[in-house]
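dumping these here so i dont lose them again. two proteins, back to back, each one seq then structure tokens. dont judge the mess
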Amino acid sequence: MIQTRIEYLGGNMLEVLTQKLTAVFDKLGRKGKLSEGDIDDALRQVRLALLEADVNFKVVKEFLSKVRERALTSEVLRSLTPAQQIIKIVNEELVAILGGESGRLASVTDLPAVALLVGLQGSGKTTTAAKLAVQLKHLGQRPLLVAADTRRPAAIEQLKLLGKQHDISVYSEDATVASTTICQHALKQAKEMGIAWVIIDTQGRLHIDETMMQELANIKSLLQPLEVLLTVDAMIGQDAVKVAQEFHSRIGITGLILTKMDGDARGGAALSIRFVTGVPIKYLGTGEKMDALEVFHPDRLASRILGMGDMLTLIEQAETAFDQQQVKDLEGKMRTGDFDLEDLLSQMRQIHKMGPLGRLVEMIPGFSRFASRLPDDEGEKQLKKIEAIILSMTYEERRNPAIIDGKRRSRIARGSGTTPKDVNQLLNQFREIHKLSKSLSRGKLPTKMGNIFDIPLR
């Protein structure tokens, strides 16, 4: 597979924190041997970065206390690579703060299992319910969505629409029927249908109130859910921690789903909420698409925060998105130099299946520093432009771009709504890619790698 271009759609909420921590550790790494003063100075900067990211003060204090204690040992100070040792300690303590273990739904023993989704209005609860159902379906565990948010009729229609789009059964009744009654009827139908998971979208409010809590308590008592999952908007910062504490003390929750992790905010809730509440984070919502729900892995998030990437998640997403036979065919074409614009278009479409490209670049070690290179929507625009240009070519032109002369360029530009200059730029970049594929087939790496969007990577 050729990576024709890597981009970042700026706005990941931990992006600024990553940049600041990377700068601190880069500076530390240039010092060579470290003194206690060097370490204290670095930790002061880390403290400021964490507080500015809206991480809970108690969490910051506990975290830095443990890091300092471990960093000041003679083993670290006398090490040949003390800065690397400290980064390792910071990474391990971040993982501990985030909970240590990966998020998983509880093991099902009796079918159907019930997952009760709770949360405030606007936290993304309804969409998250559908995302979770899609994920369970892909795992071979047949889900049933239940529209129990009778206070907001639009939520019922939204859930029915999402279910229809993804071929998932949705149980709903008239909004005048009590939520507890709807849940009882849904559970009965689920047993008859052989459903594995019943996912219940409950009522939310703009704030926590007694009526909502009592209704949730009644549903929980009636259904005895295996999971009570709180969806909480990560963009509301420390208020997210307060909301989680309140729900946990009132009804008892088994897991957290942090939504809107792709938003433009400070993001400290992700580093505070597990430590403060004691409730494990099970999923992260990272976008609007139905596949933008990631199982939470503390070690992977810690690695991303420190700018060290997350290749495991990237590989998992690639394995899901890419047709393995097409990958083998493409490798063969690259070795023989037979790679053409038809193949480029196919590969770009497969990369696009993995979700917003901005989410991909942060998983590649060392690339988080390119976060601010483009406006949020620039990458999507460029992908659409390239697709339009290639689709405006004839099959013969895609297979053999060398035949494209001035007249053909003008025709392609008119057909794609672009300019001859845009067409020329794509052809020039494709020639660079073609040279790269030939070099790789001979086991050589070019000293200069072309970039399809003219963004220098070094």
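---- next one ----
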Amino acid sequence: MRRWRRREYPAIAARAKAANEVIFWGDESDLRSDDVRGRSYAPRGETPVVRANHRRANVGLVSAATNRVEVRWMVLDGAIKASTLIRFLERLVRGAGRKVFLIIDRLQVHQARAHAAMASNPS
């Protein structure tokens, strides 16, 4: 990462500045109602038991922010899929009104074939 920040990012930033383009940093997150964080309690010698919530809910969030704190996000009903990520990206590009550089991690959903098609044929 350090090498990328020293070698690659300055070139991207210079190109974006020269052409009035914008750089977004993207990420996503999921929140589940049955997720157990932190510690639980049980008397000494007994295994802690966490009661499951049988009405499980899952909410996803995909977001992108610029270095100047321009933030875009989309709340999803359920897990993040390639199709919903593409919908977010289309809205991001349309809302920016100019060319967008999006810097994201290597999450598997980012590497779907549909993304490759969109990247090579942007609207």
